[in-house]
């Protein structure tokens, strides 16, 4: 089966008022449009356009037995449009999620409570691929020698000296743990302000982009300790078609741009700044991988003419990418969701079913439609289970 899906944008405050509308070729709504979810997650399940009026979380269980498919998807596909920076955050591993969810359930913490850390018992690794010409993100903790050089350029204000002292404590991972623990847990607002002021007034050829981001973040989140946490992170500017993979434990934040995102079906987020929401410092410190690392770029693997796959090597998901200048063919890994992002694309399944997609439109493809063929000159992404 090839079945069309639809959903409406979520109006989180950080959303762009124009990026999703421009992709879909319509007038902006006037409200921020942050994400469109294509999946069966109960937070915003897609509508199945087969005349039944059902959403995907109800449709899948109703047809699963007859078609030999799972009742739930292991992934969630999104369009994400950041008009302002998202919070700095980290996601747990599967084991951490199971333990944390059980702990909060036993403690009777309501699942919708603001202080709740674990909404479910699943991990939430994710991949984002840039759709805008550039997509700006923070991902992982920078090489500590470079971070120390950046902080050395900020002058000698008392709070900067304290920051420098934490960054000199122990091995690199321990120094970064000490620094982030201090910034989020013990630093006074006046100390955060002093460091931010020093960064905002500093010019540096080597760290110009990082310091410019500091000034931008200060306007959006005055005196937020996450502004200084961001100074410790890799600043990444993806070009269109480039991707990063964010596994468990990696601090990250999406800053600006339009992307297609795929993640495990979870809502577990622990925040580390750039937010008015609850920050559980101790739990955050227990989850973060403090080892410095290069930005987590993910290259696509060729999958035949006109096809490639972003495959991070996990069971939950892989993300196919088809550019149908000539007919492109992709073997599906299971129940899949296809999202149009450019031009017009006609999908043809192995059964002979056909469906046309414009940018922003999506369709569900059952495994018996593999291989899926795309033509018409458009561009689509295909969410599917991983290996």
TrEMBL record:
Gene Ontology CC, one term: cytosol
Cofactor(s) it depends on: Zn(2+)
PROSITE patterns: PMI_I_1
Co-factor: note: Binds 1 zinc ion per subunit.
Key word Disulfide bond present: no
One Pfam family this sequence matches: PMI_typeI_cat
Catalytic residues as annotated in Swiss-Prot or TrEMBL: 271
Positions of the Phosphomannose isomerase type I catalytic domain: 3-142
Major enzyme class: isomerase
The entry's keywords: Isomerase, Metal-binding, Zinc
GO MF annotation: an example: mannose-6-phosphate isomerase activity
GO biological-process terms attached to the record: carbohydrate metabolic process; GDP-mannose biosynthetic process
PANTHER family: MANNOSE-6-PHOSPHATE ISOMERASE
The family this protein is said to belong to: Belongs to the mannose-6-phosphate isomerase type 1 family.
Protein name: mannose-6-phosphate isomerase
